[in-house]
Amino acid sequence: MSRFAIVCTLFLVAAMPAMAQEGETSWGIMVGGNSYSQKGFSFEMPSITGRLSYNVNHFVDVEARLGYGGNTSSNGVSMGMNWLAGAYAKARWEVMERLYVTAIGGYTMANTTAKQATGRLSETDGSLGGGLGLDFYADRHSGLNMEWVRYFDSTRYGANYTIDHVGVGYFQKF
User: Which residues pair with 52 in a beta bridge?
Assistant: First the structure.
């Protein structure tokens, strides 16, 4: 287990007593697109992401995500995201009534598959990432959100690549 994962787990466990007193839990679903970029290749893949979030306090949430990205082709190469999973901290600031600016940061794992005439390569990788968004509450318990997240900025087999996500979604507290 990486040092980062151990530190995140310790912080989460240490925060649990406060979380039990403070928060609300919410779920959400987001549709959008993942953009994979590497020198010589660029792919835009549709995606759907489920979210489970716990409100630690008025300013901070912890969030888990599970996502799936479709397949796309370019220059004889087909690229797909089989799954994406991550754990994040989300800070939010109310800029006007029911509208919040959000910043998210955390760790993402994903499995991608690339296919071409010479074969197929499936990889699982992880990376730190972060992004920005807007949450608009329609009422006290539900709302819409928009966000951009850079899930990956990593190097694999000597090649630098990024995976960015842009999406819109719905969330509901329970």
Answer: 27, 64
